[in-house]
Amino acid sequence: MLLEVKDLNVHYGKAQAIKEISIGIEEGKIITLIGANGAGKTTILRTISGLKKPTSGEISFEGRQIVGLSLHEIVKLGIAHVPEGRRVFATMTVLENLKMGAYLRKDKRGIEEDLERLYEHFPVLKARRAQPAGSLSGGEQQMLATSRALMTTPKLLLMDEPSMGLSPILVEEVGKIIHDINRDGITIILVEQNARMALNIADYCYVLEVGKISMEGIGEDLVNNEDVQKAYLGG
Amino acid sequence: MKAGNKIPFMTIALILLLLLPFIIRSNYILHLIIYVAIYSILGMGFSMMWKNRLISCGQAGFFAVGAYTSTLLVTRTDLSFWWTLPLSGIASAFFAFIIFSAALRAGPLVFFGMSLVSSFIIMEVLGTVEFFGGWEGILDIPSASIGSFFFYGKISNYYFVMILLILNIVVFYALYKSRIGRAWTAIGSSVSLAEAQGINVYRYRLAASTIACFFAGVVGAFYAQYQNLLVPNSFSFQLSIYVQMYALLGGLSHFIAGPIIGAGIMVFLPEYLRVANEYQPIYFSILIILIVIFLPGGILSIPQRVPWLAGKFGKKKEESVMVNE
Amino acid sequence: MDVALFFQCMINGLAIGGIYAVVASGFTLVLGTMKIFNFAQGEFYMLGAFVTFGVCETLHLPYVFGIIAALLAMALLGVILQRVIIRYTYGGFFHTVLATIAFATILRQTAVITFGKTDSFMYPVVKGRLELGEIILNNDKLLLIFMGIVLIILLHYFLKLKVGKAMRAVTEDQEVAGLQGINSRRIFIFTMALGCGLAGIAGALIVPVFGATADMGHGIFVKILLVIIIGGMGSMPGALLAAFIIGLIESFGYQLIGSYNELALLFCMLPILFFRPGGLLGRPLAIPE
After folding, report:
1. Predicted ipTM?
2. Are B285 and C89 inside 8 Å of each other by CB?
3. Which chain B residues have a beta carbon less than 8 Å from that of C96?
4. Is B295 in a helix, a strand, or coil?
5. Can you give the residue ranges of every domain in chain B?
6. What CATH topology corresponds to B3-313?
7. Is A24 helix (H, G, I), strand (E, B) or coil?
8. Which of C9, C39, C70, C29 is closest to C205 using CA atoms?
9. Which of A158, B22, B107, C183 could pair covalently with A45 via S-S, beta carbons 3.0-4.6 A apart?
10. Could you tell me which chain C residue has the CA closest to the CA of A153?
11. What are the pLDDT digits (tens) for A130-152?
């Protein structure tokens, strides 16, 4: 197991957002968390990346406890988080955004190489590298946010609603990008509203309902499951 | 406390207030109580804005506008003081309306800055412009009078200011219970949620700050005739900070009782400790820092903090002052 | 207004504007990055001036050391304020504001008790004046303008460095900056040191021209507020532009309309706020909820 979450409880004030959740992911896989709004998907990601402190429970990454570590220590271990709503640094240029992703890295050559690779993958980022990130379109911002996360050279990538607000064609494109990233050996936890896309590319899937896991299994099984079809795939 | 229990309680409090001058018999203490009332009114104005999550740093300025309006009208024209009393409120409210209608468009942070800047500039103008009497101020301001009765002594002024205070409390209480008050509460708990409910946040905030400054102006008029002199320096920024501090010390989530309790403590405490005037701001500041760190909810939050008291007095649902996690 | 007077006002305005610009840019850095309204900024400026005066006049060290001492001392004091007080004001924005107000009051009142309220402590560095025909320019004010501009340019390049960019990232989105591995705690300490240090330097620069007085922090703080309100809260270019505009308005205004100057300044601001709520070059910045 690359990442193992055990008996996790998270509260916002007095409200419990996550109840006794345990999930695990092996290296090189994609897992996805699906569920309605407010089911706690985003909270799980935020807890793993250290943005939110859990009330109790364990999170181990490569066998090491990471609960209580500060954000930058978790980034250094190799966990990157593409937050919901992309949240690029709007007034900074595209290139500056990418360089921020490489903030902790000292290898100048490696950074340059990674930049070139990303530019090859996303030519639009190269074309707009001197523009403020706020001027990009939604899809371009998603590419930028994902690339920025990749610049931290993560082993595990947490993606929160990458397809949110994108047109159906772009959603497919996002699916392809996630697949490509995974093929390069990066493990991915994907949170999605768009359950069909998520189930198609994921190796394993958890369904969340009000802070609890209500179902889990291999993507194909869940696609054929009646309850899942009714609730998340539009019948 | 249930609503039914409130009426006898209020009656006793009122009778006590009425008899107080005869119980105390010390002019000096009555003088301090008059100050408590003045500061309470200013503090409640601050709290009304705070209910909308607006931080006013300029209550002293609007207090000054009221005081000078009344004084100039009384001394330069033949207008009776009783006409100038509402007029000074209106002048202060008008001034606030102009400044804050611009400032609120830019949001609470600019409101905060503008309230401070305008009160500072008001003081500068009162001091430097000849028309307003300059830094030496205006002397020999006549006291208010009814027929041949003049509000000279402490006792008459005590009743005068208590009427203002009670009027202020009643109006504020009624406002808080009304539809407007509920809108303010909504804005206070979450601006974006309030907007989503269709509340025009800008207008409600402007209303709150104008109303609060109206009362600051009225009590300013009272202050001028009570003191019989006005000096610009007594309306300095420091006064605005003290007003904030009273509200904080009493309890920021208690919009009426908080400022009164805070003012009561802070007016009497230094008198009994006999702190040298020079050092007073330093001790006050240290106290502010301690409250901010150790008792951010003010004195009225103590019952909720102590478990066995909470059972007895913890009637009020805690209105959180925590802004960020 | 004749030509000589015009240039006199111009130079005065630019000199004051430069000082406003330096103090306000420090304030803006702290406000933008940490969302803290640092009321003590004016008092740091005042103390910086006294530190310089002490180092130069009492210890007889060269002026440059005075400047450096003011920078370091105020940076340190700023960090102390952040680590000892601000960090614990978990009640939110208003509580932090009150804490900095209280801190400012302590500094100011201590200075007033020690040095007297209006006594001016001056340490002249350059003397003489430049005469171009009718136009007379004081050398010390020219030096002030020069130093102000140099500082602003230095700051501009500083913000292009990696740490400067990290500060900008934290300014925009603290959480996401953290997700890139930026240690915001360290950035905060650094920002506080820089922001307060800038106020210290500005104080050091003013000593040779106008001298140090115990209540000068209060006056400049109000001007800084004007600067950031007009320039746009948290906007650095806006603050710089507004600082010079206000410096010039003040110097010409005083010459033209005397004591109504301040009132005119206030009413100049209202239409700006009304039609450009974010200030000249900024977007409205929200109080963190």
Report:
1. 0.89
2. no
3. 292
4. coil
5. 3-313
6. ABC transporter involved in vitamin B12 uptake, BtuC (1.10.3470)
7. strand
8. C70
9. A158
10. C180
11. 999 989 998 899 999 999 999 99
